[in-house]
Amino acid sequence: MGNFTKWLGAGLGFTFGGPIGAAIGFAIGSFVDGFSEDDLKQERIDYERQRNSGKSRGGNNTQSGDFEMSLLVLASIVIKSDGKIDEKELDFVRNQFVNMYGKQRANSAFKLFNGIVKKDISARQVCIQIRQHMPHASRLQLIHFLFGIAKADGFVTESEVEEIRKIAGYLYINDKDYISIKAMFYDESDNAYKILEISKSVTDAEVKKAYRKMVKKYHPDKLQDLGEEHLKGANEKFQRIQEAYDRIKKERGM
């Protein structure tokens, strides 16, 4: 158990406290008898003491593990939103974590997830904690990941869409950004325009301007601080921007 919490301590910053920290503590307690949230807080104290004494690496307020835990908690909320836990969605979460973190770290994360998903969690409180510490580009990436989970079983239910919309609002992600990311997971005639956050009535010059704006907003370099493991999702999102632009250019003969 010590190695497990040490793994957490080495990768977490702001998510050690607040509602996310409480969910992590509950999850660990579900598979470790006698473990409490206070034990988790003590691990955080020990980690900070080590870091301040120069025995551990420094880090900014939002670390790779913070993004990881935020994903787990928000994913648990979305998966339960339709009143059932779908095995395909669970497999998607597991596979995404294996792809990002490797099998060993992913197994530890998913072990936590199986505990977190059993706990009733306030999406609003969790999102308040996230937005206080996580930059906008990282919050956009969270929403992209959540739509991927919801679509894993072949379709997105209205309850899942509504839950992700609420989460986006709590994370201070505006409607244009939300609609753009949502459109990346649907195959509709005007999706390319939605992805670039424009209407079909715009001029060719406005299309090019919108594309340059979206490239700047979604460039994977904005997630460099979260580590190499999170860049794959960023690259997928960036690719959808490029595909949308190419489709519009082809339709218009640009």
UniProtKB/TrEMBL annotation:
Keyword line? Membrane, Transmembrane, Transmembrane helix
Highest taxon of the lineage: Bacteria
Q: Which PANTHER family match?
A: CO-CHAPERONE PROTEIN DJLA (PTHR24074)
Task: Name the species this protein comes from.
Answer: Polaribacter marinaquae
Q: Which residues form the J domain?
A: 191-253
Transmembrane stretches, by residue range? 7-32
Q: Which SUPFAM superfamilies match?
A: Chaperone J-domain, TerB-like
Protein name in UniProt:
TerB family tellurite resistance protein
Pfam families, A to Z: DnaJ, TerB
Read off the InterPro entries from this record: DjlA_DnaK_co-chaperone, DjlA_N, DnaJ_domain, J_dom_sf, TerB-like
